[in-house]
Amino acid sequence: MEERVGNVRWGIAGLLSLGIIVNYLDRVNISVALSPLEKELGLSNFETGLILSSFLWSYAILQLPVGAWLDRFGVRWLNRIGSIIWALATFMTGLVSGFGLILLSRILLGIGEAPVFPGASKATGYWFPIKERGLATSTFDAAAKFSSVIGAPLMAFVVAGHGWRAAFLVAGVINVVYAIIYWIAYRDPSESKALSEKEHRYIVEGGAQPEQVAPTNALANFGFLLRQPKVWGLSLGFAAYNYSFYLFLTWLPGYLQKSLHMSVLKSGWYTIVPWIVATITDIVIGGILVDALIRRGYDPTKVRKSIVTIGMLLGLAVIGAAFTTDAVVATIWISIAIGGLAFAAPVAWSIPSIIAPKGTVGSVGSIMNMLGNLSGIAAPIVAGLVIDKTNSFAANFLIAGAILVIGIFCFVFLLGRIEQIKSPEEIVQ
């Protein structure tokens, strides 16, 4: 039986997870409010796709500089500033009128939220030994799914009772509360007064990433990382996952409302079913099972790559939703797909803190997140175009399935062994 060393690190995991829930509440509210927003502004499906993806334009563009800033300046201050920006952007979305200003609000939201996921990955590398990295990562990754479980019905209730603008005002208040909590509570391990010496030693000796070890030449550092097949295998595989994830995140309520003719409120309740499944599989399989198998001596590379591959294969169940108009059957297929993709995601997010050369976790995470979110930009726009051209959502599920096949290939063959990449200095030595 392992000696108890304290649980401050798990409190940090909870804080990071709460931030992801708040972040994704800002992303799901636009999806739930879609129908009344479209009617008020008179939008086409293509314009709706632009609004749904616009958050990701600034979010994706900022990933590389954010990665360098995280490695240079640390997690705490970047996320503090970001939390203020994203709260203002959420309030702005509910107060402005017109297509252009809604678009601008979503772009501003992307700027504020850009550091959150790579920052959580980097903070997890600081705060957790490698043997706990799977569960620690799955807690914040599962929060992205759980946000839709609580966010979709909450926002649907607000929209149905008070109009689409109220959804953004409610989310804005929640954002402000979180910003205050984060400002007060987050510290790196070396700065934490609550962390005992015993727990700090347990974290460091377990393989945590060292703090304040950033390369001085960020441009050369990115150039080196972009020449590594491991970085490309991880990033392209994650991009394939993220295409399906954002297709569901942005268009699932709209699909239920448009194709299956549900009310806003009913679509909100149907939407939570796949996300409940995703939350459970994310933590149980992507976190607890992965850590348990590795602790029992199974090869870490085989465990992580097997879990990712199985999850992506289950994601192909999305194709089944293309061939039904029954709401229950469609929900079952989508739940299988999201459930599989969900437990692949935390494994992918745990990899930057394992393969990155010292001091570059933020940079590796940002490359992965940038490519992932470029595909996230494409997903809602392509979906809108497909619906405009075909008057149906079915082809979007087939496209998502084809992209997942490419992602599986990248994870299996390009990534290789999941181990730390040697820095240029280590290669020279």
Automatic annotation (TrEMBL):
The lineage of its organism: Bacteria, Bacillati, Chloroflexota, Ktedonobacteria, Ktedonobacterales. The chain crosses the membrane at residues 6-25, 46-64, 84-104, 166-185, 231-252, 272-294, 306-324, 330-355, 367-387, 393-415. InterPro entries: MFS, MFS_dom, MFS_Na/Anion_cotransporter, MFS_trans_sf. This is Putative transporter YybO. Residues 12-419 form the Major facilitator superfamily (MFS) profile domain. The gene is yybO. Its main location: membrane. It is a multi-pass membrane protein. It is found in: Cell membrane. It comes from Dictyobacter alpinus.
